[in-house]
Amino acid sequence: MIKLYISTTLQNEIQVRQQLKRYVQVPQVEESSPPRIQSNNALLDDVNFTGHLVNLYFKNFHPFLPVLHKAYFMERFNDKNKLMSPLLLNAVCAIGSSYTNNPSARQDGNNPYTVGLAFYESAQDMVKHYFDLPRLSTATALFLLGIFDALRSLRSRMYVGMATTLAITMRFHDKNAFPETLSVYEREARKRV
């Protein structure tokens, strides 16, 4: 038998939400276990260029929309023993590319309208491999891809919608849902998505 709940009071709605939480549990995967995917973007192999784009992202974009926790991201970016999500790195580099005149940041070196597209398209190719188990880096990358794509196509609404749905599913909006074992940086990073 299936019961339909029609809530007329806040108390009923809270009870329904608590009951649903028992049935809808989404496993969260640690950031230390990204999908076994390699980016097909050779530009990510150039550590100096990638570092330049990451710095441009934090210098120019981050102050206006601080989606990432800089210390948490940079800790993963700089420490080769910690895993960096290639999806998130491609998204950050796509946005960072918007702030450089370096022709290497363009898919077509002579066409400034293709800036960041190599990173963006590489991220698009990887997205399907990141949906099996939710991660903070995936939700953040989807949000950033939506922003990058905002002026390029209608697909941006889909990415922002998917990022929002994923963040809500992972209960990033609920501070009480964070495991006590999370580091201060990871707690702060989750709050920003």
From TrEMBL:
Domain Xylanolytic transcriptional activator regulatory, chain residue ranges per copy: 55-193
Keywords assigned by UniProt, alphabetized: DNA-binding, Metal-binding, Nucleus, Transcription, Transcription regulation, Zinc
A molecular function GO annotation: zinc ion binding
InterPro entries registered for this protein in UniProt: Transcr_Regulatory_Elem (IPR051615), XnlR_reg_dom (IPR007219)
GO biological process: DNA-templated transcription
Pfam family, one: Fungal_trans
UniProt name for this protein: Xylanolytic transcriptional activator regulatory domain-containing protein
Species annotation: Rhizophagus irregularis (strain DAOM 181602 / DAOM 197198 / MUCL 43194)
